Amino acid sequence: MKRPQMPKLSEIFSKERLIDGGLLWAIGFGYLVLLLLTARDIGYARDEGFYFSAASSYGKWFNLLFTHPSTAFQRANVDRYWADNHEHPALIKSLFWASNKYLRGLPLIASQGTSYRFPAMALSALCLSCIYAWGRRLGGERDGRILGVIAALSFGFMPQVFHHAHLACFDMPVAAMWFFTTYAYWLCCRNPSFGKALLTAVLYGLLLNTKHNSWILPAALFLHFFLDRLLGLRAVKLTRLGLPLSWLIVPIVGPAVFFSTWPWIWFDTVKRLREYVTFHTQHVYYNMEFLGKTYFEPPMPRLYAWVMTLATVPTITLTLFVIGLFVCVQQGLWPSMLWRLRALKGDLQSFINREHESASASDAEGTSVLTEEQRAVASSCVLWLVCIAASYGPWLMKKTPIFGGTKHWLTAYPFLALIAAFGFVYVIRLVDPLVLSTKWRTASNAVWGGLVVLVPLVIALHAEPWGLAAYVPVVGGAPGAASLGLNRSFWGYATASVAPVLNDEAQKGARVFIHDTAEQSWQMMEKDKILRKDLQPWPQVSGSDWALYHHEQHMGRVEYMTWVDYGTAAPEAIGAYDGVPVVWLYRRPSADAEGNADADGE
Amino acid sequence: MVLRYLVWLAVPLLALLELAAHAYHATRVPQPDQWQEELPAAVQALHHQGDLIVAAPYWSEPNLRFALGDELMPLRDIARPDERGYSRAIEVSVSRERSPQLLKWEVLNETTVGKFHLRVLKNPTPSRVLFDFVDNLNAEHASAALVSAGTPRDCTWDTNAGVSNGALDYGHPTYPKERFRCPASEWNFVGVTVIEDQQYRPKRCIWAPPAGSRGTRVTFSNVPMGNTVRGYSALPFWNEREGKHNTTQIQLTVDGVVVGNTKHADGEGWKEFEFPTTTFSGKRATVQFDVTTVRGAPREYCFYAEAEQ
Fold first, then answer.
1. Which chain A residues are closer than 8 Å to B164 by Cβ?
2. Would you tell me how many other CB atoms lie within 10 Å of the CB of residue A438?
């Protein structure tokens, strides 16, 4: 292992590096600003309410830590403040608290809710920057920039990604942390150094402390290493022990970081970890509508994840992904596989002579017919593909608990976007034989690139604040998806869309049945002046004056409860996305006349 | 070579196509306020007393209820057992979609209002309903009792009973204000409520749950009889979808003569039954429904029935 040399100042501040740095930060910063500008109208989702509450509790412990450190480490205080929402690790919720405490009031972060949401937005934006960086690195001087830009923006403007990037939840943070860890791992594989290995290990520890998706990543990395060797790519550099350097450090440092940053597991560690694992492996099943049928127990249909991907990721991005996959296979994996097969047959030499005379030649170790650069690209493609497979894998297993939809495989999408960007580069290079001036070529590339990014951008921006109901035109958009019987809402996040009606028309102190909205989310909407403070969140239909209904197929029964109780089936207001009702509001006919509802129901 | 250029050109064309398709789908269904502005007058002009009004596709029905209100779309219609009892329907369609249940009905009239297509449809084979047991569940026409070992204990009609229901997605259907209150726990009543069927669509029915060895009896007097008593049995699908519980049975007795019974197993959903009553046709009779369960736990049974010619 060579000791890396320090780059010269002139290299650091070269024009090329400045452009790349500028692009990297422009993408991340621009995305962050866009998220902040579009956050206000998105009501607080059910789980966000729980995380606000947990973050606040953890914050009390941090305050104790800063004022009475020795007291903070006592078990009673750890248990007291970290018990809240301990079914999820602590990192992101701790960031929510820190952001709320230290960043609220900064430009665009004025509201309470946005300040809690900011860390997830920032991590999402940073993820785009890192996608650019990886694409830039692999695309080389000629194609790197366009590859990086297309990959980053194609990912960021997938409508589901764009929506989840706004939320104070873990789904985008875990996608980002997964990507950071994988990228650091890859960099360490290519040019091993202790610093990179340590960075990988720390990131993996933080990933463990982000969400349980982290448990799957090691399997993906093992598989990548195995395939890298099997295909003779040998892009992963090894130590003298025959293993990648990061493998020696991550298993020690990663869990240590995880342990040290989650106080809840400092006591009764084994019991609490077991409890954490069990919560997710035996998670209560949610109801999920798919093609007109609500699934509430395993197994989920095998096609679920694939169809939902097809229905929610812009078709242009998926098309480019298919092209990119073809390129990866044709230019990297297929020759390697052939080489391996021939090698296994023992006639490697004849194969090289006969079919690959024009190939760049095998490397000194005789590892492959590809060049070093090609092998690196091929190996990274393998890594991306195994990360995609690992993200979708659980959805092909029979006993995977159902507790959500597309958000659970968001970890696959950065890699999908990178492969799509490879596809894009392949397409624009198809016309290389044409004698076009550089000016024309640059212009056409810009137009082509602009179009493939514009489509997701338009769909994503149009979808807010209804991001979970966003479907792409291939299934007929939101109306088509509703006709197909695809889920259009969960988490009760759409309350904000009908809040103006409540604010304008509800009598003072009215009781509002909040349905799928968590009470903590409701309270945050009050704090942020989205809802009037005198309105009372009410846990059941009976006794309420107004009733919200967040549509999911199986939730219909709640709407019917309201009909019989209120004596009306006519909504007072409807929040609809592209004409498709998502949330609606009932008003008890007697509500205004009697003040509060009939006391019978209480 | 040509193929290369075609692929090169196909990518931006696909992007433009997707963009155009997005613009189309984003605007093809009117927003709720457009439903409210454009539909009431147009539907009123076509509407006859007793017409069923439906939305196509079904998911757009909340928009239609929002626009037309309870008068044109009463609970009785939107939580109907089926469409057989209606002789005419008005179908309000967007994107020219059709209601699958009405595909065989004859189209009498079709008009376009903005982005809406209004079709007046005629039922080719409407059933003639002589008596709707759900509509007539009240102190005037009915009585209820819990029956243990053959001994009935009467339930009393209450027009101001405590209303209760569930929350989020669990809990029981609404226990209505007007119902027969029985000498047992709160849920053991007889009254009209709305439950969800196997497609989670609303069904208005008579809640008459049996509990273990105790059955529930609902009796209607002076019922005009036809050739059949037809109806549906169900539990809230939430309660029967796991298929883990015991079966329930409903038995029909007319003027003391048992004319039939049918069982309902978990998972069967909104299940049709039909009992021949030809021997009573043209007469007025006392009709008794007895709901029982085989063993153990109480079941949240609900049924719809009508006497048909």
1. 540, 542, 601
2. 7
Nearest in space to A380 (alpha carbons), one of A231, A562, A588: A231
Q: Taking the model in full, what pTM does it have?
A: 0.93
Residues 6+ apart with CB under 8 A from A566: A541, A547, A586, A587, A588, A589
Pairing of strands B156-158, B257-264: unpaired
Structure tokens at B127: 């059933």
Q: DSSP character for B283?
A: S
CA-based nearest residue in chain B for residue A515: B168
**Interface mutation vs chain B, best among A560, A562, A584, A602, most B CBs within 10 Å:** A560
Tell me the β-bridge partners of A449.
none
What's the average model confidence in pLDDT over A350-373?
Answer: 54
Between β-strands A536-538 and B129-132, what pairing exists: parallel, antiparallel or unpaired?
unpaired
Q: How far apart (Å, rounded) are the C-alpha atoms in residues B5 and A444?
A: 13
Q: Closest Cα to residue A420, out of A157, A180, A219?
A: A157
pLDDT at A360 > cutoff 60:
no
Residues 290-319 of A with CB under 8 A from B: 292, 294, 296-297, 314-316, 319
What is the tens place of the pLDDT at every residue in A274-332? 999 999 888 777 899 999 999 988 888 889 999 999 999 999 999 999 999 999 998 88
A185 close to A198: Cβ distance less than 8 angstroms: no
Q: How far is A116 from chain B (nearest CA, A)?
A: 25
Q: How far apart are the first and last CA of chain A?
A: 73
**A 443-462: CB under 8 A from B:** 447-448, 451-452, 454-455, 458-459, 462
Q: Which helix (H) or strand (E) holds A328?
A: helix A315-328
Do the chains contact at A579 and B94, CB–CB below 8 Å?
yes
Nearest Cβ partner for A560 among B62, B95, B173: B173
Give the 3-state DSSP-derived string for A418-457, with helices as H, strands as E and coil as C: HHHHHHHHHHHHCCCCCCCCHHHHHHHHHHHHHHHHHHHH
**Is the alpha carbon torsion for B99, B102, B103, B108 positive or negative?**
negative
If you average pLDDT over residues A369-378, what whole number do you get?
Answer: 85
- Taking CB atoms and an 8 Å limit, are A556 and B166 in contact across chains? no
Q: Please list the ranges in chain B whose pLDDT falls under 50.
A: none
CB atoms near residue A1 (< 10 Å): 12
Partner residue facing A540 (CB), from B7, B68, B166: B166
What residues of A are in contact with residue B43 (Cβ under 8 Å)?
A: none
**CA dihedral defined by A45, A50, A53, A55, rounded to 10 degrees?**
-90
- CA–chain centroid gap for B9, Å, is 53
A 105-124 residues with CB < 8 A to B: none
Taking Cα atoms as reference points, which of A459, A416, A247 lies closest to residue A319? A416
**Nearest-CA distance B226 → chain A (Å):** 30
Closest partner residue to B165 (CB to CB) among A478, A552, A565 is: A565
Please determine, for residue A36, whether its predicted confidence score (pLDDT) is greater than 80.
yes
Query: Does the beta carbon of A579 lie under 8 angstroms from any beta carbon of chain B?
Result: yes
Cα–Cα nearest to A557, from B160, B304, B302 = B302
The dihedral built from the CA positions of residue B278, B280, B285 and B287, taken in this order, carries a sign that is: negative
* Nearest CA among B16, B12, B7 for reference residue A446: B12
Residues of chain B contacting residue A314, judged by C-beta atoms under 8 Å apart: 18
